[in-house]
Amino acid sequence: QVQLVESGGGLVQPGGSLRLSCAASGFTFSSYTMAWYRRPPGKERELVAWIRSSGGNTYYADSVEGRFTVSRDNAKNTVYLQMNSLKPEDTAVYYCKRVHAQLLVPLGDYWGQGTQVTVSS
Question: Would you list the DSSP string of 58-117?
């Protein structure tokens, strides 16, 4: 079965950095566009970034563009999210998910536990 295990979250001060990792298994990782989502407290889940299967094309939400970088290592079945210049509004549970390459909607309805990112002074 599909497994997506997020890690790397934690508590950081505004302006700090974190690097999230997502270890994938149960599917052909290198064939799929992968995305990062986040759910801030009391808010809806939102798309943060995605990266094509080859790693050659990426997308970022306006709120994170210029601060976050998504990357992947297909040999390790892992996708990363480097987060710099963190702001309190980045506080959320972060999830990774494979998405449809054209429609860019989540594939499957299983979501992992995610990893908590808290930005606070």
Answer: EEE-TTTTTTEEEEEETTTTEEEEEE-S--GGG-EEEEEEEE-TTT--BSSS-----EEE
Q: Which of 42, 40, 41, 5 lies closest to 24 in space, CA to CA?
A: 5
d(CA 88, CA 73): 29
Strands 115-119, 10-12: pairing is parallel
Contact indicator for 21, 40 with CB cutoff of 8 Å: no
- Residue 56 dihedral angles phi and psi, to the nearest 5°: -85, -10
Q: Residues 13-51: pLDDT tens digits?
A: 999 999 999 999 999 999 999 999 999 999 999 999 999
Res. 79 pLDDT band, cuts 50 70 90 = very high
